[in-house]
Amino acid sequence: MCEISYIKINTLCGELYITIAQDKKLIFPLRISFNEPINYILPKNINLSSFIQENSITLLYIEKLLNDSLTGEENNFNPEKLLLFYNLTPFQSEVYKQLIKIPRGQTISYQQLAVLSGNYKASRVVGNIMKNNPFLILIPCHRVIKSDGTVGGFSGNTPLKISLLESESIFF
Questions:
Q1: pTM surpassing 0.85?
Q2: For the structural domain made of 83-166, what CATH number should be given?
Q3: Cα 171 to Cα 105: distance, rounded to the nearest angstrom
């Protein structure tokens, strides 16, 4: 029987909440956020138990990945694995795949990300996709800024976005 719960971990940028699906001793992260989760609704038509068994990772590993991402430490984890659980449109999937390629210490505009993802008119859609990013830090939506060079919004909050960018030597 699968259980949905959350844990709170301390990272270099403060407390993060990780919503997890757990089946026996196996877990899979469903969402990472700066806010305490209220409810989590599972996507429909998914056998959560078999999904977790095929894709499980440990909490210590998740914590290490988050801190590695915050300090710029290299690891061989592919964040695309986290997106397997979600029923994304092809465009959403492409936006996240392109975003993952943006190296630490660099930014991209919502417009540029829309172009790279195959729809030059979709900068506002890209903004909404970033707003709903289920894996803050690991999928680095904080690296997406406005075309005019200003920081733009962030689901964690704008000062936190600036702090994350400054930790990558990007200053506003």
A1: no
A2: 1.10.10.10
A3: 10
